Amino acid sequence: MKAYRMTKWQAAPEFCDVEVREPGPGEVLVKVGGAGVCHSDLHIMGYPDGLLPYALPFTLGHENAGWVERVGPGVSGWAAGDPVVVYSVWGCGRCATCRVGAENYCENAPLFFGGGLGHDGGMASHMIVPAARFLCPLDGLDPRQAAPLTDAGLTTYHAVKRSLSLLRPGSTAVVIGAGGLGQMAIQILKAMSPARVVAVDLAAEKLAAATSFGADATVASDDRAAEHVRELTRGAGAELVLDIVGSDATLQLAVSVVRRLGHLTLVGIAGGSLPFSYLGVPTEVAVASTFYGSIPELTEVVTLAQAGQIKAHVELFPLAQAPQVYQRLQQGQIQGRAVVAPNG
User: Fold this and answer.
1) 87 closest CA partner among 32, 143, 150
2) pTM (whole model) above 0.90
3) Are residues 157 and 300 in contact, defined by beta-carbon separation less than 8 angstroms?
């Protein structure tokens, strides 16, 4: 099969011929329906050798969904043709966090480690999943449309869920960045809380998309953005600010619009930083970064999608166009979530 693979650091991935192997004990062979194209991949492509604990080559694609093709010895409960999403980060399965399904915070595996993240991912016709616990049933959903639930959906769901106690009637949640992840965050906030949702972005078309996904107000990310958000909150600020971008500028905006006792949650990995001092942030603001979510939370995300409460805005592309799709993503030309469909 053809697979789109990282073969060198700080170089463009390449199409390579890779064997479709039989699943071994405990493994599952998945026929890939969709593999999401993510900004994280662009960061990985640009990293120097030695920064990540990955052995090259490996196949890209960490937002994956498809159908069970075959199961290895010892696997039960799954049959050929079952639609599934694949949990993206693969832990040891034995430590305390893994035992409760939070393999995103495995105590033994490196961060950013899983299918498409150092192991072969979904930018090929098939992928091997090393353990059946990484599969979640997808009954009633098209894997091509559901692939972004595994990252864009799960990452934002986890970030929202940890702050639900703050989002009471009359509260405000601000989402900075209204691209693929931001659009999912808006929908999840509307599905799970009574909070008013304010979307902030540079691009007018992304703000229009935010409105279509349920944002109650939108603010252009210019030098008056903080002032406008403050006006919307009557000067108090927002109970929750989700920074989906993570640059110096967006973090500074985030700290300027979060209220006392609020949560400022960093989701984006643009590499920015936030100076911290006693008077530098509002009193008792909790500042945190998050990484993906747990396996049980992925099941909850799928349940929301099955109920029609969240849906990714997906553009589908054939595998052969993967290089062009990454170029479009780099240039900001993807409005929602690009998904490569290796099997049509």
Assistant:
1) 150
2) yes
3) yes
Measured CA to CA, the distance from residue 5 to residue 115 in angstroms comes to 12
Q: Report domain extents, the chain.
A: 2-151+293-340, 156-289
**Amino acid letter, 293:** G
Question: Buried b / exposed e across 94-126, counting CB within 10 Å, b at 16+?
Answer: ebebbeebbbbbbeebeebbbbbbbbbbbbbbb
* Whether 33 contacts 341, CB under 8 Å: yes
Any idea what DSSP says for residue 124? Answer: B
Under 8 Å CB-to-CB from 52, ≥6 apart: which residues? 44, 110, 112, 118
Domain 2-151+293-340 has CATH 3.90.180.10: yes
**What pLDDT score does 335 carry?**
84
Q: What is the pLDDT of residues 178-224, one digit of tens each?
A: 999 999 999 999 999 999 999 999 999 999 999 999 999 999 999 99
Domain at 156-289: CATH code: 3.40.50.720
Residue type, 180: G
For the chain, the average pLDDT equals 97
Provide DSSP, 145-164. HHGGGGTHHHHHHHHHHTTG
Nearest by Cα to 342 from 123, 141, 143: 123
